[in-house]
Write a structure and sequence with these properties.
Elements: H1 11-22, H2 26-44, E1 50-52, E2 56-63, E3 66-69, E4 76-79, E5 82-89, H3 91-98
Antiparallel strand pairs: 1-2, 2-5, 3-4
Helix pairs in contact: 1-2
Length: about 100
């Protein structure tokens, strides 16, 4: 019988894990986590993005207007310019998870 895939760690589990590792109360870890997210969202809007040292960088990218195709009819259509939020993974994180090349 195949084993069911493990579920991703929830925010509550993450806070509990960090609380255990740092010997800080869960409430303090939660407050820190919320403050970190608040700063990350604010800084990501700026041109330089928000770096998470050793993990990657949260950045806003600008997509140019382009021509696309309606998948149902095959008809060409114009796609407007837009902004998107991306997370660029650092080399250190890639090497830690996937192993060095």
């Amino acid at each position: 019988m195949a084993k069911a895939p493990a579920k991703a760690m929830t925010k509550t589990q993450l806070i509990a894990h960090l609380s255990e590792k740092t010997d800080l109360p869960k409430k303090k870890v939660s407050e820190f986590f919320e403050a970190l997210l608040e700063v990350a969202y604010k800084e990501a809007k700026k041109e330089h993005g928000f770096p998470f040292p050793g993990l990657g960088k949260l950045v806003v990218v600008k997509r140019k207007a382009r021509m696309g195709r309606n998948p149902q009819t095959g008809e060409p259509l114009r796609i407007k310019a837009s902004k998107a939020l991306k997370f660029r993974i650092s080399k250190a994180a890639k090497d830690a998870v996937l192993g060095p090349k």
